[in-house]
Design a protein that fits this description.
By secondary structure, the protein is of the alpha/beta class. About 35% of the residues lie in helices and about 20% in strands.
Amino acid sequence: MKAPLCGASTVQRALSRVRQVRVTESCGRVVRLIGLVIESEGPLAAVGEVCRIVSPRQRDETLAEVVGFRDQHLLLMPLGETHGIHPGCEVIATGASLQVPVGSVLRGRVLDGLGRPMDGLGPIEAEAHVPVQLPPPHPLRRQRIRDPFCTGIKALDTFVPLGRGQRVGIFAGSGVGKSTLLGMIAAHAEADINVIALIGERGREVREFLERDLGEAGRGRSVVVVATSNEPALHRVKAAFLAMAIAEHFRDQGLNVLLMMDSVTRFAMAQREIGLAVGEPPASRGYTPSVFSLLPQLLERAGAGERGTITGLFTVLVEADDMNDPIADAVRSILDGHVVLSRELATQNHYPAIDVLESVSRLNRDLLTREQLELTAVARDLLALYRRNQDLIQIGAYPAGSNAAIDRAIALQEPLRAFLRQSLDEGFRLEQSWTLLRETLARSVGLAAPPAGAPLPAAPVAWTVAGRPDQSGGVGS
């Protein structure tokens, strides 16, 4: 009986493994360690290559990545602890950059910044490994963003609509509810799979996010990558790229991926540590030039591909609630929209604390119908008019009846605020959100809501604020 012939795919996999085997090793030795930088005499290695640092005194080895050169010496940044490294430690080049396991087995798993499991569920039998550093999709082959992405959050789906493949930043100070908002979106959004990167998070908050904010249902369809604040700077940077590589794998399979990263600011801070350690000059607020070149390399990889999509939500921790922070400015210029969380709204127990007047989606005209655009325009006008006259209204200096537009803004203020609020366990479909907004604008002035899809009347009626309030918005104008 003849033995069965091996298939072509089996032969290709065997050849691939043979090519990856290193017959010889290129070695060097540690000569200096200052701060975060390990200086090595040899081996022959390229920037981005991972090396193993082995000490004869310890059984464990440390991984480090080549980040530069100085006087014929390699500059390496550790991907783990530096304890136990001493002059003369052997540095062995692996001949490859950092790679990440990918495949459907990652659903429901929690990984560290190097792709190793940290959830106690055993090793990951990955279908394949891909490099962490990959180029973004070709700009002329990307799909156009045409389909709306339902987040389940009323305020976002109506006032700041997202499309499949859109990249949006969530800008807020500390303690305003960024992580809670991400957990709500992960639990209710219409995505095939979630990839969540927690970069520089407090160790205490990781379990809280997984169990309280994300929940069992959200975790079951998510891949979580964690690099806490105590991890080395390079570990935190690699965790962001590793999460992006996982999301790209699922996108290339034609899936609708939701990528959430908390936070881009801590990613930038980690790269600032690396840049300063290797001798880069500080620029704006101490951030080095490599920070501003690395941000687009990461963020441009998200978005629509040739088949699937990556809808990206990237939180930005603004220092002292300053929206003109250098990282906030750089990220805002790259992304396709921004959502601003207001500390003032949070102190008023208004959650999610989304300031819809300061938030912008650059694709709202591509994603909304004419009726939806008019509904949000009317609601924005009313909210903005009330905000401009808020001080006069609250101190009682505005006499009711002196301006019809302001009267309508006052009447609709509380109903609109109630519409923009949402509890943690609530999720709304797109049709529900638009119906509720339509009813809010109509019912508050005693009219029945028009049916969904019906065109707005040509002449202004009760909810159209007399066509549009005058731009001055002042009392008696």
